[in-house]
Design brief:
single chain; alpha+beta; four-stranded antiparallel β-sheet; 7 strands; globular
């Protein structure tokens, strides 16, 4: 795997709407019929990633506006990979969700960047399982994009890619 120097500016500031009980629910209902129940988060402030990967320098700014489902980990895999909103996955999953939604890079590149970034928080076996899951199921997500959705997502991402000269 390629070594990656990663610089992140900004914090992962999010609005998190999971209503499991009335104490956490904005509307006070707090059960499965709650109108504000959602298993997604949204950025509330910009987040910037700067990194070198495969002979290119990427500078990617993410702006609020896209719902994020975290790392799309099936419930049966939570014990071995982690919860979808696990802090070791979430930061990189946010970038991956934005790259997928905006289709600014080929799917395989977005997946490779995500798996490579996980070197900071996950072991080799866990990264292998995540890479396999992306290869098997990522195409379904990618194929479900609409031109309108991609256009909207591109308004939420600023991506600059330049060659690295070493």
């Amino acid at each position: 795997m390629t070594e990656m120097n990663l610089y992140i500016s900004g914090e992962l500031n999010t609005r998190f709407a999971l209503c499991y009980d009335f104490r956490r629910c904005p509307c006070g209902i707090g059960n499965d019929t709650c109108p504000c129940r959602s298993d997604t988060i949204e950025l509330t402030a910009p987040l910037t990633f700067d990194f070198d990967f495969r002979a290119y320098h990427y500078s990617i700014a993410l702006f609020p506006g896209l719902p994020i489902d975290g790392a799309s980990v099936p419930r049966g895999m939570w014990a071995s990979i982690g919860h979808p909103f696990d802090s070791g996955l979430l930061l990189f999953a946010v970038l991956h969700d934005y790259l997928y939604a905006a289709e600014l890079l080929p799917r395989s590149t977005a997946d490779a960047i995500f798996v490579n970034m996980l070197r900071h928080t996950r072991g080799r076996w866990c990264r292998f399982k995540i890479a396999l899951a992306l290869k098997l199921a990522g195409g379904l997500v990618w194929a479900g994009h609409t031109p309108e959705g991609v256009a909207y997502a591109r308004e939420c991402v600023d991506c600059e890619i330049t060659p690295c000269f070493r």
